């Protein structure tokens, strides 16, 4: 079985504030702690841009409104990883430039350099980073597991359809509790 890594994606303060509740953060924290205890690498993925946002084109529907704008001091807190899942000093933090964890980032290099062949995905939003990363990671031949309750989305029905109908075509789907129990065996 290839080495597995837990990807904690887009769990930044501003995103948690919009999409998740404390129960979500607690489940995710439990998965992160269990991965660490089992010596599974934890890789944090954030969305971010350079000052001036040179990598954003105005016609990009999701990020275009940010094109050319200077960042503000408040953005430091907003874009920081939520304190309940703060990376440990040697855990990689990968900055992506679009929706998929692989888009504009060095994630694939980080994973392959560590011999990672299986990804356990958690993050916000199910219909954003999780969906895009499942698709791209499958195309890159990674084995995949999605922690359904360690993903969150603004639309519960979209979350349900993705985790019950779409993701199982390319990934194992389980809960954080079931995954943690499997690590502890």
Number of alpha- plus pi-helical segments: 7
Largest sheet: 6 strands, parallel
Strand content: 15-25%
Query: Class, according to the CATH hierarchy?
Result: Alpha Beta
The CATH fourth-level homologous superfamily: Isochorismatase-like
- Kindly report the average pLDDT value: 89
Total domain count: 1
- Helix share bin: 25-40%
Keywords: Hydrolase
EC number: 3.-.-.-
Protein name: Cysteine hydrolase
Domain Isochorismatase-like: 4-177
Outline the structure in words.
With 185 residues, the chain is an alpha/beta fold. The protein has a single domain, classed as Isochorismatase-like (Rossmann fold), CATH 3.40.50. 37% of the residues lie in helices and 21% in strands. The protein contains seven helices and six strands. A six-stranded parallel beta sheet has the order 3-2-1-4-5-6, sandwiched between helices. Strand 4 (116-124), helix 5 (126-139) and strand 5 (143-152) form a beta-alpha-beta unit. Helix 2 runs parallel beside helix 7. The protein is globular, with a radius of gyration of 16 Å. The two termini are 16 Å apart. The model has no long low-confidence stretch (mean pLDDT 89). One of its GO terms (molecular function) is hydrolase activity. Keywords: Hydrolase. It comes from Streptomyces glycanivorans. This is Cysteine hydrolase. Residues 4-177 form the Isochorismatase-like domain.
């Amino acid at each position: 079985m290839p080495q597995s890594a837990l990807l904690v994606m887009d769990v930044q303060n501003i995103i948690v504030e919009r999409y998740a509740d404390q129960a979500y953060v607690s489940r995710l924290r439990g998965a992160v702690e269990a991965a660490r205890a089992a010596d599974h690498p934890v890789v944090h993925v954030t969305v971010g841009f350079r000052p001036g946002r040179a990598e954003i084109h105005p016609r990009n529907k999701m990020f275009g409104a940010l094109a050319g704008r200077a960042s503000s001091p408040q953005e430091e807190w907003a874009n920081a990883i939520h304190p309940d899942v703060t990376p440990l000093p040697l855990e990689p933090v990968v900055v992506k430039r679009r929706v998929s964890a692989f888009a504009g980032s060095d994630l694939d290099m980080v994973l392959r350099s560590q011999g990672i062949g299986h990804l356990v995905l958690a993050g916000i939003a199910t219909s954003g980073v999780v969906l895009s990363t499942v698709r791209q990671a499958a195309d890159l031949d990674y084995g995949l597991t999605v922690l359904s309750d360690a993903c969150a989305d603004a639309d519960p029905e979209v979350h349900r359809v993705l985790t019950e109908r779409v993701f199982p075509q390319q990934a194992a789907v389980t809960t954080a509790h079931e995954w943690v129990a499997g690590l502890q065996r």
